[in-house]
Amino acid sequence: MLLLLAEYLQQFYKGFAVFQYLTLRGILGVLTALALSLWLGPWMIRTLQIRQIGQAVRNDGPQSHLSKSGTPTMGGALILSAITISTLLWADLSNRYVWVVLGVTLLFGGIGWVDDYRKVIEKNSRGLPSRWKYFWQSVFGIGAAVFLYMTAQTPIETTLILPLLKNIEIPLGIFFVVLTYFVIVGSSNAVNLTDGLDGLAIMPTVMVGSGLGIFCYLSGNARFAEYLLIPYVPGAGELIVFCGALIGAGLGFLWFNTYPAQVFMGDVGALALGAALGTIAVIVRQEIVLFIMGGVFVMETLSVMIQVASFKLTGRRVFRMAPIHHHFELKGWPEPRVIVRFWIITVILVLIGLATLKLR
């Protein structure tokens, strides 16, 4: 939106051409979303408190969590608002990738909103039934996958890239839709499972979003892509604005979500942010790198799968409680220790993911 205004004003003053630079608009996206989050956060928290939209806490979980009961939830709406406004202000709105990622983010956020609404407003402990949650996730995930497949302009946009192996590329054809579906829906649920402690999910999301933003910028630049032997995806660079907005909104939310949290993200934020990360990774053809950088999300998901499978097959639990962050809490780790150590792990994994840019 502001990009169009800047283009118009260039005829009067050439200095407005500076807004053509992706890096500047990416930084402005960060700062705008951060400012919006910090400005709107207190108002949103008060509104949630007045409407008594508070988190329900499981009685079978760590006892330290009982004090969190009633803490305002559905704060993910703050993140989505800041991301949306910042992206619309600074991104090139003629870019199809911007609309795909923004659309997926808001649609998955809508699923989470319905789930949260039924839990905290209607007092329905089941929320949105799992079959309907996965149904709508599948509809939106497949829809995005089909759109990306049908609008692909080059074969590389539907090819599986293997990090570290520069000469191996696997054309996926129609199986691109299947892979994209699993990446989007899987990452959405993985972030949702991780969102169980104060700040545990949002900071890794910001870190992974930062890493993917670098991939977007490089993949959208023909020279950098050729030099680094990564896929050149025309238009992908514009997603750095969305990634910047995600970073700013996430950091702004963390201001209120850090231990002890004043507000929780809820499914409205977790499902949306996970889907956004998955969609971006698909566009820049870095699904495997997402798997690496989002290792904490993968670990949380696997812990739930292992726990459920073990209990059904043997009647025994592998972990004291799943997801795995609760296991460490029940072993005696204070909540801030679990959170910070998971952050540290994510920093390391994101750096490893970025290292694949040169190790080819």
Largest sheet: 2 strands, antiparallel
Domain tally = 1
User: What is the C-alpha radius of gyration, as a whole number of Å?
Assistant: 20 Å
The proportion of residues forming helix, as a percent range, comes to: 55-70%
Order of helices and strands: HHHHHEEHHHHHHHHH
Would you count the extended β strands for me?
A: 2
**Terminal Cα span:** 38 Å
- The shape is globular
What does this structure look like?
There is one protein chain. This protein is an all-alpha fold and 360 residues long. It has one domain. It has 14 helices and two strands; from the N terminus they run αααααββααααααααα. The chain has helices at residues 2-9, 22-50, 76-90, 96-120, 130-150, 175-194, 202-219, 222-228, 239-257, 266-283, 287-293, 295-314, 324-330, 335-355, and strands at 159-161, 169-171. A two-stranded antiparallel sheet has the order 1-2. β1 and β2 form a beta hairpin. α6 crosses α12 (295-314). It is globular, with a radius of gyration of 20 Å.
Please name the defining characteristics of this protein.
mainly alpha, two-stranded antiparallel ribbon, globular, 360 residues, single chain
TL;DR of this structure?
The protein has 360 residues and is mostly helical.
SSE inventory with pairings:
Layout: H1 2-9, H2 22-50, H3 76-90, H4 96-120, H5 130-150, E1 159-161, E2 169-171, H6 175-194, H7 202-219, H8 222-228, H9 239-257, H10 266-283, H11 287-293, H12 295-314, H13 324-330, H14 335-355
Antiparallel strand pairs: 1-2
Helix pairs in contact: 2-3, 2-9, 3-4, 3-9, 3-10, 4-5, 4-10, 5-6, 6-10, 6-12, 7-9, 7-10, 7-14, 10-11, 11-14
